[in-house]
């Protein structure tokens, strides 16, 4: 898998390069500042980009802006964004397009190597990988919504769906049967007024689109 990395912290940047190359991926370009990111994406057209949200020169949202512009110019470009903190507005903007191949993880998740590599693979394949803390923010930021009608178990299932887990993964996490998971998913979609199909990552994107546009 060909990867572009954009991270201004030299130690973390080199750590990501070592981690990804050790996992068999090819790092085709690295960027240490915001203005370097988009040219690298357009030149190399990677299979996935790993980008920090805040980068020089302004340390505001340079990485995110580059990610959004990269996805506009290269439709379908998978992007995994890293952030030091849960920044709800950034997560919502990245996810608001309703397309696949997006991820938003806190930087400490990189230290959990297997989780990080699994998230990278899901994003590169067109899926979604959201940090559990980001999911919590998205699920609780609005009041008086149909989300309030979900049972505690249905909210757990919805959160795990948003993180990118499939039915089997949700069943293992909650220690229930896959049949029970399918039933909960059907109830979630029914209560949220969403299509009842639950195949592939499109079900996750439908839920995220609902959360970001209500």
Automatic annotation (TrEMBL):
Domain HTH luxR-type: 143-213
PANTHER family hit by this protein: TRANSCRIPTIONAL REGULATORY PROTEIN NARL-RELATED, TWO-COMPONENT RESPONSE REGULATOR
Keyword set includes Transcription regulation: yes
Phylogenetic lineage: Bacteria, Bacillati, Actinomycetota, Actinomycetes, Kitasatosporales
Organism, as annotated: Streptomyces gottesmaniae
Keywords: DNA-binding, Phosphoprotein, Transcription, Transcription regulation
Domain Response regulatory: 2-122
One Pfam family matching this protein: GerE
Gene3D superfamilies for this protein: 3.40.50.2300
InterPro entries xrefs: CheY-like_superfamily, Sig_transdc_resp-reg_C-effctor, Sig_transdc_resp-reg_receiver, Tscrpt_reg_LuxR_C, WalR-like
Descriptive protein name: Response regulator transcription factor
Xref: SMART domains: HTH_LUXR (SM00421), REC (SM00448)
Modified residues (4-aspartylphosphate): 52
């Amino acid at each position: 898998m060909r990867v572009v990395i954009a991270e201004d912290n030299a130690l973390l940047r080199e750590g990501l390069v070592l981690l990804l190359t050790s996992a068999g991926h090819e790092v085709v370009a690295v960027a240490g500042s915001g203005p370097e990111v988009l040219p690298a994406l357009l030149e190399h057209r990677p299979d996935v980009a790993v980008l920090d949200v805040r980068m020089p020169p302004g340390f505001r949202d340079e990485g995110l802006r580059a990610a959004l512009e990269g996805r506009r110019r290269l439709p379908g470009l998978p992007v995994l964004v890293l952030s030091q903190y849960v920044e709800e507005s950034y997560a919502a903007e990245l996810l608001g397009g309703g397309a696949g191949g997006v991820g938003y993880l806190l930087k400490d998740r990189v230290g959990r190597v297997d989780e990080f590599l699994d998230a990278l693979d899901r994003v590169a394949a067109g899926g979604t990988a959201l940090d559990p803390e980001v999911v919590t923010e998205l699920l609780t930021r609005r009041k008086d919504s149909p989300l309030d009608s979900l049972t505690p178990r249905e909210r757990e299932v919805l959160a795990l769906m948003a993180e990118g887990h499939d039915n089997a993964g949700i069943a293992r996490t909650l220690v229930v049967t896959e049949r029970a998971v399918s039933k909960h998913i059907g109830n979630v979609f029914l209560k949220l007024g969403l299509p009842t199909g639950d195949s592939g990552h499109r079900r996750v994107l439908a839920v995220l689109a609902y959360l970001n546009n209500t």
